[in-house]
Amino acid sequence: MTGKLIFKSRQKFILFILFTFCVVVSLSSLASGSFNLPLFELFFGAASEIEREVFFEIRMPRVLLAAIVGFSLGITGASLQGLFRNPLADPGLIGVSAGAAFGAVAAIVIFSNLALGVNFGTYLVPFAAIIGSMFVIILVYLLTGRFSQIDVAYMLLVGIALNALATVGIGLFTFISTDSELRGLTFWMMGSFGAARWDLVLPSMIVLLSAAFWMVSYSRRLDIIQLGEIEAGRLGVDTKKIKIAVILSSSILVGLSVALAGIVGFIGLVVPHLVRILGGPHHRFLLPASALMGAALTVTADLVSRIIIQPAELPVGLVTSALGAPFFLWLIIRFNSH
């Protein structure tokens, strides 16, 4: 009993540290960049008009977008790994991010020149990305024996095939796009928070947080499903309901994240593993901790992308991939050694 209480106290402490780190790195990101901002003067009304404009209209929505995208990818990666009962399940590796990107690219190229209303056109890309991610997750669900326990290599091969199919579709739409669309699509595919606007960030944040809290409500049942579907069913868990909930919420989280920021790789893979090392595998802790660490890492990656080659800007997807790829290689070597 004492050990259990100590473990819970440790988890609460880790959550507090992650939250604090997220706040600190967000404040640093708000203040730093090609145009540094005096936060103290901004908070007490002593800043200039241009500083207030940059802070409220450019820097704040960008940092908030980076945080909610990392939040979404972190919690999605942890949930998919729990549902698959597979530590290598990741939105990028199994093709979900590519499916969302395909939906978004199709919407951008096909509907960019049509006479759509402003609001409909603004929200069409996120909606198309959600449809694309949902379609891929359903395919993975069917091709992997309805998320039954399968070989890691088989799941990765399914992901490679789906990524390849989505890439073909993206390539076709990129080929028929105009020069102006091509430059934007290329940079967007590598991940960027530079297009953050309040009219997209605020409604997206409401949707993403709602989907995340819905997913967290299934954390206890995700723990039970680790015993296997048959055993979970005997314990009274509706495994079909869990699958539907995780599929829908993952589609929304990944689809919106990709539509708003492009493909930001490896967050959904790396973050849950780091959190498990720190505080254990229980999903009641794992999901919120992965969300907080994901938010902190994407905000950090965005800050690095803005300051490393000032005044130019690196695509944030390159930064996260540079951090995540070595970790992924370490995972492969670790699993192979066992």
SSE topology sketch:
Blueprint (H helix, E strand, L loop, with lengths): L1 H30 L7 H5 L5 H36 L11 H16 L6 H26 L8 H25 L2 H11 L8 H19 L2 H7 L3 H6 L4 H23 L5 H13 L3 H25 L8 H22 L1
Within CATH, the superfamily carries the name: ABC transporter involved in vitamin B12 uptake, BtuC
Overall geometry comes to globular
**What's the CATH topology label?**
ABC transporter involved in vitamin B12 uptake, BtuC
- Estimate the strand proportion: under 5%
Number of domains: 1
Q: What is the H/E order?
A: HHHHHHHHHHHHHH
Tell me the Rg in angstroms: 20 Å
> If helices are DSSP runs of H or I spanning 4 or more residues, what is the number of helices?
14
CATH class, anyone? Mainly Alpha
CATH architecture tag? Orthogonal Bundle
The main pleated sheet reads as: none
Total number of strands: 0
Cα separation of the termini: 32 Å
| Portion in helices | over 70%
Structural account:
The chain has 338 residues and is an all-alpha fold. It has one domain: Orthogonal Bundle (ABC transporter involved in vitamin B12 uptake, BtuC). The protein is built from 14 helices and no strands. α1 runs antiparallel to α3 (49-84), α4 runs antiparallel to α5 (118-143) and α13 (283-307) packs across α14. 44% of the residues are buried.
